[in-house]
């Protein structure tokens, strides 16, 4: 039975990557970014660190092993959750344009669909922690739910601010088309250089660490406290799918930030180089430097932080768009 499920897991991750080559390219780039992150953090902490390709080795090693299911855990749900999470992020990356390189079909989804898809990994992790039957998983479930409730509000405010800024400028109240947002900035300048949009930019930057589980907001999966929480009982290809889901979500969040605030006007190879450079800078600023320099917050501290500052920045950004946009 486990061998059959392992085969299904492998097909679940390979199918979207084969059918959608851009997702495969993004996954490779995301794993390379993780390798760079581990090297940078090691250097900042005066360690040697792993090789650049270590994330690839980890995925391949996990794929070669067997997924074990804890006694008493619902087998189908336990093994289906990582497949759902990974496939949702493959679909999400298909909706985000890479300006000058890839333009998605707007009929398949927009900013609203992307917002829903971005909540899937957190929900999957919560269900995984619950399905595992582990005490550590249950604690991770509780922490993930609290953290998601804290950062989803500011994220929604930022998305609405960007959508309204574009919509009002085009004669509508609001637009959720990512390509409309890109085209408006190409004609009128990036939102990153618009002072009225700076509160929304700062709010989005502050949301990234919690959305991606980056210190000091890696509270649900704290290895030293709850042994990776929801992932404690996962192994083999199932755990590899969670790693792939995390990598793809990182790329979705980074690419969405670039699309909303600094898409650029380049095309072809220059556009691709620009996208890679922007992702690298944003990744290093919001992950590597934080991971190397700060400790982990308690869940109550993280919850209060997001209900204070990012929420306030999101509200201010939305008000500025409404009255000044």
From TrEMBL:
Keywords: Membrane, Transmembrane, Transmembrane helix. It is a multi-pass membrane protein. The chain crosses the membrane at residues 12-33, 77-102, 114-141, 153-176, 268-290, 302-323. Coiled coil: none annotated. PROSITE patterns: COMPLEX1_ND1_2. Signal peptide: none annotated. Its main location: membrane. GO terms for cellular component: plasma membrane. It is found in: Membrane. PANTHER family: FORMATE HYDROGENLYASE SUBUNIT 4 (PTHR43359), FORMATE HYDROGENLYASE SUBUNIT 4-RELATED (PTHR43359:SF1). This is NADH-quinone oxidoreductase subunit H.
């Amino acid at each position: 039975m486990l061998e059959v499920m392992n085969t299904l897991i492998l097909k679940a991750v390979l199918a979207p990557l084969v059918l959608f080559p851009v997702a495969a390219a993004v996954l490779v780039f995301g794993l390379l970014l993780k390798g760079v992150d581990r090297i940078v953090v090691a250097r900042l902490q005066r360690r040697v660190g792993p090789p650049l390709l270590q994330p690839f080795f980890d995925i391949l090693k996990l794929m070669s092993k067997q997924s074990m299911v804890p006694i008493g855990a619902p087998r189908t749900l336990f093994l289906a959750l990582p497949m759902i999470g990974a496939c949702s992020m493959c679909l999400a990356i298909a909706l985000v344009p890479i300006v000058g390189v890839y333009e998605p079909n707007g009929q398949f989804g927009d900013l609203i669909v992307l917002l829903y898809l971005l909540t899937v990994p957190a929900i999957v992790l919560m269900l995984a922690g619950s399905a595992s039957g582990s005490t550590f998983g249950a604690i991770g479930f509780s922490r993930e739910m609290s953290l998601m409730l804290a950062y989803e509000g500011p994220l929604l405010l930022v998305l609405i601010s960007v959508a309204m800024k574009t919509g009002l400028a085009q004669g509508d109240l609001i637009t959720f088309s990512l390509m409309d947002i890109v085209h408006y900035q190409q004609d009128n300048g990036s939102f990153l250089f618009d002072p009225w949009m700076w509160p929304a930019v700062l709010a989005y930057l502050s949301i990234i660490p919690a959305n991606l589980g980056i210190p000091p907001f890696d509270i649900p999966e704290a290895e030293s406290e709850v042994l990776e929480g929801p992932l404690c009982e996962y192994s083999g290809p199932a755990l590899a799918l969670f790693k792939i889901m995390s990598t793809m979500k990182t790329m979705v969040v980074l690419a969405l930030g670039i699309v909303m605030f600094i898409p650029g006007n380049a095309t072809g190879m220059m556009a691709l180089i620009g996208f890679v450079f922007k992702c690298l800078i944003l990744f290093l600023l919001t992950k590597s430097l934080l991971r190397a320099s700060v400790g982990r917050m308690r869940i109550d501290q993280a919850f209060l932080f997001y209900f204070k500052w990012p929420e306030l920045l999101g509200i201010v950004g939305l008000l500025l768009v409404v009255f000044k946009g």
